[in-house]
Amino acid sequence: MISSMSARTIAVLGVFGVIALSGCGSSGSDKEDSTTIGGGADPATVQVIKGWADELRTGDVAAASKRFAIPSVIQNGTPPLRLTSREQVEAFNQSLPCGATLTEAVAVDRFTIATFKLTERPGPGECGKGVGETAKTAFVVRRGLITQWRRVVDTGEGTSTTQGPVI
């Protein structure tokens, strides 16, 4: 547990995000709603995840951050980190270099594995070569809030072997 995590520590997470493995290919539209997202996950959970991604993609870090519970757990190429304040959640969201469009959400036990198509987004950092790649994140959503956000490295067949950023 890290109860006094600095913004600098959270910013380092963005660097780890730039190193994360992403797969290739995916389809989706910015205009999709939770009922058209493939994968069969719980629609209420999909709506939370989609709302977070949409807000982050448009640069509304504060709104995206309000979708996280306090405390929450994030894991982005690091051991799990516990975020215990709204400022820490905002710093984490700000550190992510890419925006994303949700393309699929699959329920696996208590997690919802979300697949995103990466985009640029307003704010610091650049998604760069990651634009158009896919990335996966495992979420736990409780009472309409994200309680866990864990990057998933997709090593399945047909995925790219190039390194790219994650959201």
Query: What is the H/E order?
Result: HHHEEHEEEE
Instruction: Give a short account of the largest sheet.
Output: 6 strands, mixed
Helix content estimate: 25-40%
Distance between the termini: 23 Å
State the low-pLDDT regions, or none.
11-34, 158-165
Gyration radius from CA atoms, angstroms: 14 Å
The shape is globular
Task: Please give the number of β-strands.
Answer: 6
Give the neighbour order of strands across the main sheet. Answer: 2-1-6-5-4-3
For this entry, give a set of tags.
167 residues, alpha+beta, 6-stranded mixed β-sheet, 4 helices, 26% helix, disordered C terminus
Structure described in brief:
The chain is 26% helix and 28% strand. With 167 residues, the protein is of the alpha+beta class.
Element layout with pairings:
Layout: H1 7-19, H2 43-57, H3 61-65, E1 68-75, E2 81-83, H4 86-95, E3 99-108, E4 111-119, E5 134-142, E6 145-152
Parallel strand pairs: 1-6
Antiparallel strand pairs: 1-2, 3-4, 4-5, 5-6
Helix pairs in contact: 1-4
Could you describe the 3D structure shown?
The protein has 167 residues and is α+β, with helices and mostly antiparallel strands. It has 4 helices and 6 strands; from the N terminus they run αααββαββββ. It has a 6-stranded mixed beta sheet. A hairpin with a 2-residue loop joins β3 (99-108) and β4 (111-119). α1 packs parallel to α4 (86-95). Mean pLDDT is 81; it is low at 11-34 and 158-165.
